[in-house]
Amino acid sequence: MRLTGTGGIVLATALGLFALGWWTTDNLLVLIGLVLGTPIIADLVLGRRALSRVSVERALPVELFATHAAMGGFRVGNAAGRVSIEDRSGNARCEVQSAGECPVEWRFDRRGRVRLAALHLRSRHPLGLIEHRRCIEQPVDVWVAPRPVPGSVESVPTTDDVERAEAPSRSGDFLDLRNYVDGDSVRSVHWRTSARRGELVVVRRAGDGGTMVVVEVPASEGDAWERALEQGCGSFLEALRQGPVVLRLEGQSLGPGRDGRFRARGLRALAEARS
Q: Cys staple from 59: which of 73, 134, 202, 220, with CB 3.0 to 4.6 Å?
């Protein structure tokens, strides 16, 4: 806590009158000094109690990208008077005057894993003489994906097309099993294998061919590597609008996939790529 400008004037005046009255044995001045000091004590006790009752939770954005502002919020409870909330790790801050949700923007300068630590609260309730401060430890890790930059994507034949080109087969012949992706027909799900694996698996048959999009991030170093990741991120997001995607990064392949979980896995892989 610290005294505000007004609080400093009130306290200095109260102490001055009290000291002068004590020195001159003027009981009236002593009494006036004590009376002037009473609001300081009341503000100290009531304001500290009010701020200790405030509860705050982060409502983080679903996706975070380096240098891009992402909308989220703070869920605030038991707020009395104006309360300033600041998340210094994510450059997010807002002011509220009552309980509810306060919209804020999170912004991060670099990609990667970021630890959000404490929330810092400030309030001058109730009398404005003291600025009360409180720190709420609320650690959480977030992954910031690279800044998406438009890049090129490549469409390649699926396994079905390749096998039909090399060895034509009758329409409907069983080829293999693959993981379910958003948009697959429920009728193609292989329920027995899905139950055994604990995730949906579909049957691929001759005649079910199509294309998938391959996004490959070329290996590089330094700033060139960061630019490649940014272009890879932009290409990955664009490719998801076209169909199933395979993401190739640092010698590993992720996918094919297209649903929300796959999108989140791809963005996290791009965020966690070596620096």
A: 73
